[in-house]
Amino acid sequence: MARKILQSGLVLLDSITEATRADEGQIAVSGSHGGYYAAVLASRGGLRAVVFNDAGRGLDDAGIAGLRALDRVGMAGIAVSTMSAAIGSAQDAWDNGVVSYSNATASKLGVCEASVLSAQFGVLSRADEPAGILGEVEEARWEVASGQSLVLCVDSASLIGAEDAGRVIVTGSHGGLIGGDPARACKAQAQLVAFNDAGGGKDDIGFSRLPALDSRGVAAVALDCHTCRIGDAASSLESGVISRANGLAQRLGARKGRSLKSIISEL
Q1: What is the pLDDT of residues 117-155, one digit of tens each?
Q2: At a CB cut-off of 8 Å and minimum separation 6, what does 22 contact?
Q3: How do residues 33-47 score in pLDDT, each as one tens digit?
């Protein structure tokens, strides 16, 4: 499932990147993390309210930073606990998600934290249209020299294309398979790709892209969410520490506790 209209006014999106013009004014339950970049996509997509996964919150509370930003434009936002619902699955968020955070706009509506998400739809349905739109994020995709490599940095893995094959790619995205689909692990046959582990999450979903990429011949690592900000590739490259590596990445020297930067410097 990529997107699904569950009922009038409610759409399920495994990734917030899948929001379309048809979703304007809707409440979206997303499988995405609640970082700033994701919030910008929700805001600029014209949604009325949004639900994200808290991705373990992580460094600087980056997993819910976007929800706080949405308060600036009067948009209600909720996060569900990464341990209650698989990141990357909007259906699991709706079926099993437990509210771990609500921004001030949502709290004023009466959203109750520690409650099941589905029980809060009636509350969210009272949300007003946002008063404004968050500005676009600059430099969501760029290159930086690191060691002998020209590293591609993307705040969202959605910005990777097939033309990026053979590259070292550092993302701000979570390491969970979107909708559980191995085909969506990475759009390019990269040399090495790094993701945020989103706190590991339910059933270790935050690492699930790694074996899928191993089977495709792509080295991949997950970074401890408490060492770098999810949704922020610059933070991943600067301070990210590996929490798990697939077999191909291990052959490159990647292992738990090593910095991502040190691995890239040896390529």
Answers
A1: 999 999 999 999 999 999 988 778 999 998 777 999 999
A2: none
A3: 999 999 999 999 999
Backbone angles phi, psi at 209, to 5 degrees: -70, -25
- For the chain, give the secondary structure using H, E and C: CCEEEEECCEEEECCHHHCCHHHCCCEEEEEEECCHHHHHHHHHCCCCEEEEECCCCCHHHHHHHHHHHHHHHCCEEEEECCCCCCCCCHHHHHHHCEEEEECHHHHHHCCCCCCEHHHHHHHHCCCCCCCCCCCCCCCCEEEEEECCEEEEEECCHHHCCHHHCCCEEEEEEECCCHHHCHHHCCCCCCCEEEEECCCCCHHHHHHCHHHHHHCCCCEEEEECCCCCCCCCHHHHHHHCEEEEECHHHHHCCCCCCCEHHHHHHCC
Q: Are 80 and 89 in contact, with CB atoms under 8 Å apart?
A: no
Domain borders along the chain are 3-124, 141-265
